[in-house]
Amino acid sequence: MRFFVDENSEYTIKYELIEDEFTSNSSSIKNVLEAYCIIINGLRKQRHDFLNHLQVLYGYAQLNKTAHLKGYIKETAEDLRQMGEVFKISDLMLQALLIEFIEKLQQAGHKVVIDIQKSCFSVGKDDFVALKQNLNDIVKIMEEEKENLSPLFLKMYRKKNKRVLELRLSFDLEKNGKRLANDIICVKDLIRLEF
Fold first, then answer.
1. Neighbours of 96 (CB within 10 A)
2. pLDDT tens, residue by residue, 153-172
3. 118-132 mean pLDDT
4. Which residues are 192's β-sheet partners?
């Protein structure tokens, strides 16, 4: 196995399994490796973003724009606090999936407000693949929603023996004619995944 930096982006780490190194558990190992790559890529991106934040702060300080400086610090601190909610989850693979999901929503222009219960969540290998596909399907729909950029509210909690991920939208999916997979519950402005 080898890890390498994607030639198209200096911020993307990828992995490659060499000569069927892991035959019996290869899908489990691939899921774990994918999760680690997402986390590493997230850390690399955060470092890049952090340096950009420092440059903006330095610029405001140099121009003596105290009000802008305070506002920017407050906004950045809130963004970091929000992403910190994901780290309440003990399962690294689930953390990685959510980090990737949230970043994709943010790249599409959506602000995401996160609320995750402190209870331990974990995801099995079968759930990992299905959940990743479901989250990617949601991202595709949200990328098309350029007119509805109000905050999205992501909530994760336990309900009996199920883990529930809810995404409250600022628009009515049914009215917009959007369709999602059968195992995703959609009611007007709410998307719910149970796994």
1. 26
2. 888 888 877 778 888 876 66
3. 71
4. 166, 185
What is the model's pTM? 0.68
The C-alpha atoms of residue 96 and residue 90 are separated, in whole angstroms, by 11
What are 20's two structure tokens? 């069927």
Residues with Cβ within 8 Å of residue 128, at least 6 apart in sequence: 31, 93, 94, 97
Q: Which carries the bigger pLDDT value, residue 167 or residue 90?
A: 167
Q: What is the DSSP annotation of 33-80?
A: HHHHHHHHHHHHHHHHHHHHHHHHHHHHHHTT-HHHHHHHHHHHHHHH
Domain of 160 in residue numbering reads as 2-194
pLDDT band at 71 (very low <50, low <70, confident <90, very high): very high
Domains: count for the chain = 1
Side-by-side strand order, sheet with 152-159 = 112-116, 152-159, 162-168, 190-194, 184-187
| Chain centre distance of CA 134 | 13
